[in-house]
């Protein structure tokens, strides 16, 4: 108790609390801007903590890192663009609710679930510290591989209307993740002689392309986020969302437990955790609830509880063993070294007040962030009523800029456009984008765990108890969903145009075969996993092509896919990218907003406010707060 009171007093010391507050505010800002994320925030903050004492330093760092997954809900719900990769699952039901005029309800549920999940994760962290070591050491690479396959299968089968297409989308995502230098032999796989691809395609660019570009194109075509009449009772909706979180307290705690437990396993990222929580909630849907993906509030509560609870879980192996539980925690290890702190079992004894302060920081940061966000929710919810001609160009600037700041290379924009096209195609043809995104994120983990399991145990890893259980459950989920799909002859929702869908399947079949053939000459370690994945992709695509041909006469032609509107939006993306490269990172977006504003007929005051506002935010964030070396504009 004395240690706890000492830590509490240290945390609430005026200087330390100011740093915590500053970290929370910065984390909220970073989470709102698509493509930035907590990793970026930690990278820029760690050097700034050199002159601070450890408690002030980690109050700032953990205050920032703990809340980016709270504010990333704002763009996910309001415009369908995940602020960070940890908000991808929230997009499905949160944005669907916003389209119905219930943005405040979705945000209220998300913020309250985030707070409870974050506090619950911190509590579990404090309880698990003494007993976690034997649990972590008990799991081997085969177990981690089986858990990862189970999570991927669960989401693929629960995402979208066609389970086979969900599995194929997940395999395609994992196949794309294999591009780059092989981690075992250093061989090039599908790099096309581009140095840019040696490290693979950046995750943030894939997510912004797959989710951000298609949703903004849809909003522009629809004229605003709302599909029906607006509801101005935002405060009532806000309270309603918070009340639904409390009524679903069992789901909140269960999802928080999933987030904290899996966050403690090194290599299991936030994207995996939130989708597992989402899948768990979807499996327990009650008959009187809306379908998940169409505006079910439990589809917002579950991932938001899990992704905030995982911060406490991922800090656990970092403190106890010096093993980072996530990418941000690996940056935090650098901060430990900077302040002369050695993580490990001895730290729990010798630096107990600091450890307790870190746990309290995570809990308090979530409470503060929720208070800020709830206070702003009635104002933020009004964004859903803003006309698309105003909202979409401004949001597009931050999406494209978020991609470009990754490497500051023209290929950032090219791959954003490429994955944007893929996202539009998948949305138009009814394919599961979440399954693709999760397959992409899990691809490196799957390959790493598979190769290490094979090196250590050969094929005997398949006989390990946890592996058998996880794979058996995954197989049963696949079989059950396939039988259910076969028995219900009529599919739900809109069936895409059969010619375009068949052409897409043939394209995927060709990619699977070409990928397999191109790997033949590589060393065994470099080709064993992607070759098997390419073969599975080709087999699934062939099965779906055969099914499409057999059902050709049974299918019904639907209304035409609005290709023209999507092409016009992609032209906007190209124009913005060209302006960014030609005029620079400040003049380019400003010129784009000016041009679009004149085209859509903005009033002079509206045009000046939009241009100066966007330019000021970019300048403050990327020139003042984090000065960077930007490439020279092509016209200068």
TrEMBL record:
UniProt superkingdom: Bacteria
Record-linked Pfam families: TctA
Entry annotated with the keyword Membrane: yes
InterPro entries named among the record's database cross-references: DUF112_TM
Membrane-spanning parts: 20-45, 76-98, 110-132, 138-159, 195-214, 319-342, 354-374, 386-404, 410-429, 462-483, 504-526, 532-550, 570-600, 606-625
Keywords, sorted A to Z: Membrane, Transmembrane, Transmembrane helix
Span of domain DUF112: 18-436
Protein name as catalogued: DUF112 domain-containing protein
């Amino acid at each position: 108790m004395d240690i706890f009171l000492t830590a509490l007093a240290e945390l609430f010391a005026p200087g330390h609390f100011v740093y915590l507050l500053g970290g929370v505010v910065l984390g909220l800002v970073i989470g709102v801007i698509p493509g930035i994320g907590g990793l970026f925030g930690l990278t820029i903050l760690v050097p700034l903590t050199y002159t601070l004492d450890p408690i002030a330093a980690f109050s700032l760092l953990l205050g920032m890192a703990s809340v980016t997954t709270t504010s990333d809900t704002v763009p996910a719900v309001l415009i369908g663009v995940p602020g960070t990769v940890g908000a991808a699952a929230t997009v499905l039901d949160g944005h669907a609710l916003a389209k119905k005029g219930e943005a405040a309800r979705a945000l209220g549920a998300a913020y309250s679930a985030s707070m409870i999940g974050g506090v619950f994760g911190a509590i579990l962290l404090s309880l698990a510290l003494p007993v976690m070591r034997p649990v972590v050491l008990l799991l081997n690479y085969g177990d981690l591989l089986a858990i990862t396959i189970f999570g991927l299968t669960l989401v693929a089968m629960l995402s979208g209307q066609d389970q086979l297409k969900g599995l194929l989308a997940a395999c395609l995502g994992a196949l794309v993740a294999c591009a780059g230098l092989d981690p075992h032999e250093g061989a090039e796989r599908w790099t096309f002689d581009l140095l840019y691809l040696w490290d693979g395609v950046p995750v943030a660019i894939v997510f912004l392309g797959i989710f951000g570009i298609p949703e903004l194109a849809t909003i522009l075509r629809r004229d605003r986020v709302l599909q029906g009449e607006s509801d101005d009772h935002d405060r009532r909706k806000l309270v309603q969302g918070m009340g639904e979180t409390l009524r679903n307290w069992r789901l909140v705690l269960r999802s928080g437990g999933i987030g904290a437990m899996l966050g403690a396993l090194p290599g299991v990222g936030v994207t995996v955790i939130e989708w597992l929580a989402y899948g768990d909630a979807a499996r327990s849907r009650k008959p009187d609830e809306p379908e998940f993906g169409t505006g079910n509030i439990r589809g917002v509560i579950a991932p938001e509880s899990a992704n905030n609870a995982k911060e406490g879980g991922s800090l656990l192996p970092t403190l106890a063993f010096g093993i980072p539980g996530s990418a941000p925690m690996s940056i935090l290890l650098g901060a430990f070294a900077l302040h002369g702190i050695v993580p490990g079992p001895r730290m729990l004894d010798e630096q107990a007040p600091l450890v307790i302060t870190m746990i309290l920081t995570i809990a308090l940061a979530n409470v503060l962030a929720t208070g800020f966000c709830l206070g702003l929710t009635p104002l933020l919810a009004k964004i859903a009523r803003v006309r698309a001609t105003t909202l979409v160009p401004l949001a597009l600037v931050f999406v494209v800029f978020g991609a470009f700041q990754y490497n500051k290379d023209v290929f950032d924009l090219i791959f954003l456009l490429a994955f944007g096209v893929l996202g539009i195609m998948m949305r138009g043809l009814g394919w599961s984008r979440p399954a693709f995104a999760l397959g992409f994120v899990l691809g490196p983990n799957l390959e790493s765990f598979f190769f290490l399991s094979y090196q250590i145990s050969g094929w005997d890893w398949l006989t390990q108890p946890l592996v058998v259980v996880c794979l058996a459950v995954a197989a049963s989920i696949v079989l059950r969903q396939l039988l259910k799909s076969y028995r219900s002859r009529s599919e739900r929702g809109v069936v895409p145009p059969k010619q375009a869908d068949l052409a897409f399947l043939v394209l995927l079949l060709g990619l699977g075969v070409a990928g397999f053939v191109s790997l033949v000459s590589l060393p065994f370690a470099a080709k064993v996993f992607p070759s098997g994945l390419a073969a599975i992709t080709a087999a699934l695509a062939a099965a779906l092509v055969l099914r499409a041909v057999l059902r050709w006469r049974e299918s019904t032609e639907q209304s035409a896919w609005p290709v023209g509107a999507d092409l016009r939006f992609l032209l906007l993306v190209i124009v913005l990218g060209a302006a960014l490269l030609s005029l620079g990172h400040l003049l380019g977006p400003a010129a784009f907003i000016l041009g679009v504003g004149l085209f859509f007929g903005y009033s002079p005051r509206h045009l000046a406010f939009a241009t100066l506002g966007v330019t000021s935010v970019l300048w403050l964030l990327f020139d003042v707060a984090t000065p960077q070396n930007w490439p020279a504009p092509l016209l200068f």
